[in-house]
# Entry
Amino acid sequence: MSFTQIHAQPGRAAVWTLSWFLFAAGITGYFWTSKQRHLENPDDRVMPTLRQMGQAISEAALKPAEDDEVAAGADTQSWAAKINHSMLWKDTQATGRRFILSMALLIPAVLLGLHMGMFPYVGAFFLRFVLFFDKIVALSLLPILFIAFGIDELAKVMLIVIGVAPTIILDAFNLTRGVPREQIVKGFTLGASDFSVTYRIVLKQIWPRVLNSIRLNLKAVMLFLFAGEMIASTDGLAYRIALLRRHMGMDTIIPYVLWVALLLFLVDLSMRVLNKRLHPWFQEA
Amino acid sequence: MAATQVTLSESAAPVTSTPAAMIRIQDVYVEYGQAGKVAKRVLNGISLDITPGEFISVVGQTGCGKSTLLRLVLAEEMPASGQVLVEGSPRMQPDRRCGYVPQKYSLFPDRTVLENITFGLEVTEIGLLGGLIPSRRARRKAFRSEALSSLRRMGLRESDARKYPHQLSGGMQQRVAIAQALIMRPKILLMDEAFSALDPGTRLGMQRLIKTLWRETGTTILFVTHNPREAVTLATRVIALGRPDASDDGAEVILDLAVPQTDDEDRVSGLIRRIEETTFPHGMKHDDESESPEV
# Structure
């Protein structure tokens, strides 16, 4: 059977090779081009070599940040202490703090969507407004947010909430409406109250799908977070990338971008594992 | 067109109106439609009295309003005019007086079999945080043991208690759904095409089970089916809905038959023929004729 056919069945080795091929090709292509550029111009800063990137990331991850107060005697510190005072760790902490706060603020969005789907008057009150709000390009609100909330944390968190919350609200609303009516009726016939039907039947059933929806919106959360940090911030991963761009610091920018991708991948993975552990019925369904 | 009322046995339930009706449906009209459009009438002046302990089968062609009638009794739907009284009072939404076993989505997919059966007891007797109170924890244990014995009565094994609904066959799921409904001791059990999706063998077993449970508990059962044989073999009374003269006025009660509790196959076949001729005058698809009528 030809490998171009729909019914082709690639073996494990073939799947493994194919799935890593583009990574290998990309990495090889980069370093080959980088080497060529450095042969032509040893001071090239557009495509740093592996050694340059290793040196830059080592400085970012192991040397104290410029504004760190415990800089004195840093060389004698343990690895953990060095990392703790490093620029990369401090930036990661700042971005992580905003990320976690934004994710926490999405919980009310889920609950609002749930109530809109369950209670017709709540739905009638909010639905049109949320549908309209969902169409507003969140980034276009940036100036308004900075004027209204200043350039502190609140503006950045609000940007994320405004950018992602309507999608999550509408997702939760649609998932709630998608719960078969029979389940709700069944709940009432078993003596459940409105509260019990909403939280013990419907929320429990939509929760794994809501987690999936949040997981799929992680990139949007990071997009708005990065936009906020790049424009108005004094720390954070995106702030650092924007700052280094001015100095053509590609040797640090590229590892930073890969670090962000790795972090996002890990968050996505842990959410998937958590979802699977918490809802075995959903995974097997 | 007036309903044809026939009593074939002295022992069968009387069809005439009684003051002690468990369910009273009075001149009910149901219409569906959007604003600005002509409403489509589904039920056209239905009146029925159902006495406690009756086993009623509602038959009729697809789309004739059988399930609508059941939803009216559930209080899941309200009539355009007329009223539906359960134990003499109208209701605004479904409650635990009526147990409900639908054809699909009859179990909560996120709960194990045991949790499905005990859900009603837990939600009414224990509450959300009740598990933290020691005395209620003991009651929860009692509920679980009651659920397990109910599970065995339904012909399921204790090892099935830990399974999720999707790990059970269709017949097993419906057995659990019946156990889930009956553990709340409802006065009325509403079953909407509950056995329609089952294969003939499983369906026969379910018919036997529900008949036994009805005899033991005396629960009033309203059983919606499109299968005249199933209707006759199960019920003490069969109500057929249909549109007289193929009009667009919505369905009426076109047949109201008391069914004798007999093993006489000729009488049973005669009744089935009668229902088929009245309800399906242009013939019907016998999609599950292979079933034995013995229940």
